[in-house]
Amino acid sequence: MEKFTLKINGESKEVTAEDDMPLLWALRDMLGMKGTKFGCGQALCGACTVLVDGEAMRSCSLPVSAVGDQEVVTIEGLSENGDHALQKAWVEHIVPQCGYCQTGQIMNAAALLNRNPNPSDEEIESSMAGNLCRCGTYNRIKDAIKTASQNI
Amino acid sequence: MRPTFPFFKPKEETDKSKIFKPSRRDFLKVSSLATGGFFLGITFQCSGPKGSDLIFAPNAYLNIDADNLITIVAHRSEMGTGIRTSLPMIIADELGADWSKVKIIQAEGDEDKYGDQNTDGSYSVRMFYEPMRRAGATARHMLLLAASQKWKVAMDDCYTENGMVHHTESEKSISFGDLVSEVQKMEIPRSEDVILKPFSDYKLIGKDIPIYDAKDIATGKAIFGADVDLDKMKIAVIKRCPVVGGKAISVNDTAALAISGVEKTVKIEGAGLPAGLDKPLEGIAVIATNTWAAIKGRDALEVDWDLGENKEYDSAAQLQEMLKSTEEKGKVRRARGDFEEAMNSASKTIERTYELPYYAHATIEPPAAIANYSNGKCEVWAPSQHPQWARGAVATALGIEVEDVTMNVTLLGGGFGRKSKPDFIVEAAILSKEMNGPVRVQWTREDDLHHDFYHALSAQRIRASLDGSRKLVGWNHHTVFPAIGATSNPAEIHPSDGELGLGCVDFPYDVPNIRIETHESKAHTRIGWLRSVSNIHHSFAINCMMDEVAEARSIDPINNALEMLGEDRNLSFKEELDGDFSNYGESIEEYPWETGRMKAVIQRVAKEAGWGQRLGGNKAMGFACQKSFLTYVACIVIAEKGDDGKIKVSDVHYAVDCGIGVNTDRIRSQFEGGAQFAHGLATSSAITFKNGKVEQNNFDTYLITRMPQAPKKYHIHIVESMEKPTGVGEPPVPPYAPALANAVYKLTGKRQYKLPFSI
After folding, report:
1. Is the whole-model pTM more than 0.90?
2. Which residues of A touch B229 (CB under 8 A)?
3. B18-218: which CATH topology?
4. Euclidean distance between CA atoms B286 and B295, whole angstroms
């Protein structure tokens, strides 16, 4: 067991864990932050996506020991009041069905808009290809990302 | 409690609902939020277990408090269909509530309080539309009466809107909250005095209403199964026998226990064979202080298994046997005329076989459940489609009374039929009892794909005979697949009447000679129901064959379907069946099979999609239609061949007649999602078994649709209808794969007879 100091959503958080524990379980089990979801454990579905220094990372496959002093942003820290342009667009387009994958989708979309503020349909598709949705909300996700890109 | 299948579940609830005033204490049982105000409950007349007397069970509660907050209890499980929004919407609209001031709380699983909560079979709106309207109208009646008495005016001159009662003749208005104290003293009006609003007065029903949970979901605050945290909760991850029916002979847990955070291992006794629908598989649970330690501990377990009688099971070999069996004469399940004679005198008989694999549900939220056992009582939190079945199964497994189990329902991260089965919830309960404290059972994705209740693999053979004038005069459909019932009862070696009523014996076309046959097959794994159930394979085979029939007749497929549906009339299949016609649990008189409604959706989809127009060489349209779960659906898929030779779906058109549409946005979203779900079934997903074990492990081998492969545009055309509402969760799925296959044929000249096919 080791003690790690993580920068999460602008705050410093201490976690005592095995060094191979994925960031996902540190967030969920150790810090009680439940917005980041477990879907596959193998970086295949994107439900656990968080931002690490602004880039989308699959927290299920990122050992807590590899985070270092990088800035982690989770869905809980994406905006102060749930009013990030993506979150607003998600509500406006009524994107979610069951909703389970959506926090991962939003975090992945946030990383996309960070590096490409005006993505084309094709760029959205290729950037979002790693985030699975079983209910079938991809087209509304696409529309919401386009709406958010106008308002960011 | 007996497992209830969505498709042959008798309709237990009737619209003879009664409205009553529950005590404040009753309401507090479901909500700690309501502290005062006016309470209203609804009872639905439910029949008890077969033959027993009718019982009255309160199903839903409504509370209006002095601060104008309206609280409505949602008693059905939310898995993404929007039901947690749609049913309260109906109450609120009749009431004339301010929708922005409606709070929705989730009911626990309790049959005595809520009647049937089995959220399955595209059933909720169909069952509860009328009772919810009556509840809202009753509360409105009482508020109007209270206001009119206060103002000393005629009640008929008052109306409700946005949480206020208004007087038409004057400027007088008063909020619901200000009437609460008067309404509390009133008796419930006689039901014949309560008048429902005309449809044109609705402000929510028939409109696009955002789902209640949208913002919570987008901000990560929504609570799904694994998100419930209890003090001192342990986490369990289980190594289950890789072959259904196997048993553990010996366990070496030394390495597992050496992992930091792992506290204990516990053996869970499996059901053996038959595996059953509500029992855990044999497994060894690793109990740890966190999920990661539990996963690592599980992976470090060494278990020597007796794999049992399915240890050599090979699904590809079984499928070939099943296919071979369709060459023989089977058990006749529907007969009209003389197919043999029709075939012998036919000028042409088209004979084709169709093969579909097992499918896993693969909800993005893998099964997870929390149980807290202490002092002979157990409280459970789980993403359950069928909380009452789970409650009963937990009580049985722990040897306690049903009343001693409290079943809390979280949001479901997808259901599709998987989370009807309570096996994972029972695991949590057993382990919690063992640990005498709270335990969360967490399934990994590998667990989910290896130990699902799969959609059955299937083989079909259809012979379609045409006479000299190119009329379809003979239809012979052989279908074989392991029955869901076989998971509990190995003697069930033929598909049940209920499963055949899902798109097979309800073949609607006007063909003079029909013979539908089934063949024997055994279940070598756990078979369950997946979104639209046997409609998936039946619709694929029939719609693909009908496309070939149209081609052989040199008739356009849409015209062929319209012509063969014949005159507008109500079909009844009963007299030609050897067995019952389930009609999704409804009487055929009340919910007839109307050819006119099917023809109307076909004509609508053809018009909207521009069927028949020239699309250019790299695009083509395919058509299919399927009535399922009492909803009429026609589908046109437009497939496009790219420069790279790959085929993509540019557009999907659906026309749907589901009677009255309650939340039109959620109808559209179910069809968008249903198309995407079915796209995976059609083009990429398959579960296979070798040596009794599932060969797929995760989303790298069980492939579901990703954004780049998904259809690009959806066009959902909802027929305006005043017919009784029917469900939309499942009906989008069946016609998609055959419509795509028929479009792909037009593009490539190649017919598809097996799912999945790559494009």
Report:
1. yes
2. 32, 34
3. Aldehyde Oxidoreductase; domain 4 (3.30.365)
4. 8
